[in-house]
Amino acid sequence: MDRRESLKSMILGSMAVGLTLESCVTETPPEVIEDKIWKYTYGRTPKEAAFDEELLLDQFFEDQELQTIKTLANLILPPNEQGTIEQAGVVEFIEFMAKDVPEFQVKIRGGLMWINNYCKTHYQAAFVNCTEVQQKELLDKMAFPDMEAEVQVQEIQFFSLMRNLVLTGYFTSEVGIKELDYKGNMPNVWDGVPQDVLDDHGMSYDAEWLAKCMDPNTRGDIAQWDDEGNLIS
Length: 233
Known about the structure:
By secondary structure, the chain is an all-alpha fold. Helix content is 55%, strand content 0%.
């Protein structure tokens, strides 16, 4: 099992919500972003909708921080033929989570500052401008810590949080779920006992009762109701 396959199996038991927001790391047209943002407003109360709007349309991380998160996310989960961090909206997901869970803010922002300071001290360049070899050398220090330590240092806690967010953001997106080959509950159509079986047992359906049953061919139709709550169709 390769690294990506092992990550897929790790994430199968954990599902979360992925939202797409406009930021400096995306090239998606604003109107497409707007459609994606408000795709999930069905069933929201006015209070919830107002909260969503405030949360979704605000930006917490600075553009430079978003670029660092993007670079880090691509190192944690490199692109392949099935999907990429960009296609999954992982950076936007992390931006959203930082606003939705305020305790993430100091941990992530502090971690981003630490890796940039480390890179400038050891490689004389910001993290995004370092070579991939240098970037991975730094990540190895955080990804493979001393397991005997009672309390892991902050940069290791930061990397653990970012790894969890990247995997959650990717494998709960459309491309990530397709890569998992997750199907979920798939509806089927059952139109009754086959006629030959009914004949063998001398049984038959009542024509009047059958007329009241749902037609499988219209199972995708949405019911229509009048103002008094009566079913129209």
